[in-house]
Amino acid sequence: MKVEKRLIGVLVMSLIVGSLISLYLIKEKIETPINVIDQSFPLKALAGTSELDQDKYSVAFICREALKQVAVSFSYLMPVRPNLTEPSPKVDDAEKAGEKIEQISEKFALMQDLGYAPEVTVSDVQIGGEKRTIVVYDFGVALNPALPASGSSYYATVYAVVLNKSKMIEGFYEGVSDYFFMRELSLRGLEITVNTNKTTYVSADDKAGLAAGALLAAKAPAQGRIAFSDLARNDRVSIIYRINSRYDVYPKLFAKQLYGKYLVHMVKFEIDGELARDKVLVHVIENGGYVEV
Amino acid sequence: MARIRSMALIVFVLCLPFALAEEGIVPILCANGYQQLPGESAIFRAYASALAEIIQNDTTLGLKPVVVGSLGEFVEYLAFPQTYVGIISFYAASIPTELQAAMIELFGRGVGLIGMNEVAFAGNLSRSILPVFANATSEGRLTIVGGKIAMGHTYVKSDPTHPVAAGLSD
Question: Does residue A25 belong to any structural domain of this protein?
């Protein structure tokens, strides 16, 4: 029996197109129903010198379907000792690494006793041009409801371990479930826009902003978590916030703590109480105030 | 006999969760809160470890000390339901108002707090949650005691009828 070549061609084409459609449909199912349409962060944070210098962070998303609740959470992390990539390792580095792991495990165990667990995310990042893996242990998700919101930019609720290509620990990060550290000093402004509805928060010294109807930054959504409810399909949401980028406005001890070369900024999306694992944004940012010693 | 045994087994099973329950924790923070002098942090660490050892060695307490490194972490630990009491030795002026508010809120929820050194006698926390042997305290003032300059404090019995004031001199 002779089969026409054209027919085989049509069959093959139909198979390919059919598979592509199925793959697209499967992907649609797996992917969370929001699209991140914009994200920005400074390449070098805390490098400001003048009164007006601010670091701008933003994220925007669009809903692909009607959603009951979407929450966007920000966290900020700074490196803590030991840094195992330093050219001249310290004698007690190994001991310090052990202490840090013990500290994380201790908190882990306490939470497990209560029937909770930290939210663990694994992401690939570029640090100094090298590919690294960052494992983030977010205790804030479970702890924040029990913690007084006023201190959220101080609590150490987020930890991260940086692994190199051989999966060896290279460094530790520790941070807060908030827009940045020390919110009362750092947060200069926050704009939350849902379609055309904008809510603005400004710092207490922004008299013009306050006179124009902006709210006080101290009243900005607590614990770096902004929740939206009853979003419709194609609703656009954008969040922009600005951080004081001058090192000298922060206490000396804080500036001393920020000894590392890189900082980590994280954005997570929660849809109807579930973490959108495919939308975890991890930004590694150069520390503008870093001084090589 | 079998009935007694089964009763004993039931009692044992019912008591098991209590027997296996985690011991209470005691977060300890010893620091000054400002840029430390060389070697100072080691002294504070040793101080915190010594306190932790005392608590750990007293088996009658059944408490587990946790030495923490920052004020934020200390306050965070106070929120754990397992926490009985927190021990803090700190420089009061270095405590941000946000964390002071958080500590006052947690104290109101029932967690115990023991303040040592400056935090216990100066600033808002000394008035709100850490009055030592009195119902109210005032900020310390430099005075001369026994020919030497020392920080002096006034403890006020604002409510002599309160049980905490019992046995205190006027």
Answer: no
Whether this prediction's pTM lies above 0.90 is answered by no
Task: Please tell me which of the candidates B34, B72, B81 has its beta carbon nearest to residue A155.
Answer: B72
Return d(Cα B108, Cα B123) in angstroms, integer: 18
* Interchain CB contacts (distance < 8 Å): A and B: 70
- A5, part of any domain: no
Query: How deeply is A280 buried, as exposed, middle or buried, from its count of CB atoms within 10 A (0-12, 13-18, 19+)?
Result: middle
Domain extent for A146:
33-287
Position A22 in a domain: no
**Residue whose C-alpha is closest to residue B119's, from B152, B75, B88:** B88
Distance from C-alpha of B168 to C-alpha of B126, rounded to nearest angstrom? 18
B43 touches chain A (CB under 8 A): no
Q: Does the predicted interface ipTM exceed a cut of 0.85? A: no
- A67-120: pLDDT as tens digits: 999 999 999 999 988 777 777 667 777 788 888 888 888 888 888 888 888 999
At residue B74's C-alpha, the angle toward residues B73 and B76, to 5°, is: 60
Residue A208's identity, in one-letter code, is A
Strand (E) or helix (H) holding A149: none
Residue A147 lies in a domain: yes
Q: Work out how many domains chain A is built from and give that number.
A: 1
Amino acid of residue A118: P
- Domains of chain B (ranges; CATH) run 23-130 (3.40.50), 133-170 (no CATH)
Give the three-state DSSP class for A293: coil
